[in-house]
What we know:
By secondary structure, the protein is of the alpha/beta class. It has a domain at 38-118: 2-Layer Sandwich (YaeB-like fold). The chain has five helices and five strands, in the order ααβααβββαβ.
Amino acid sequence: MNKYIHPLQQHLSSQTLSKPPKKETNAFKDILAEASKVKVSKHAQVRLAERDIHIGKTEWKRISEKMNEAKIKGVTDALVVMDDVALVVSTKNNTVITALHSEEASNKIFTNINGTILL
Length: 119
């Protein structure tokens, strides 16, 4: 054996050998749940407040589920049409971009969307 090359010696401490494997936590589940939550942009927050639009928790949950479905189908920006409210959303970012009443939406043209979600 060459006098300059020595075999690698690994020293394992008893501490690293005695560690039990980490128990699986719900961290991934929590991260996934957080990622699927709908965020509301500052602009949309202002529009919701100005137009006195209130959306309940169950409606937000439905919006979130449908946004995820649309995202799976390749939709990146969508118009969400509800009974009395229309939202422009980014499924890519899970973000509400703007909000308006359905009466206002009937006179508008929506651009830069590639899908519609009817609730």
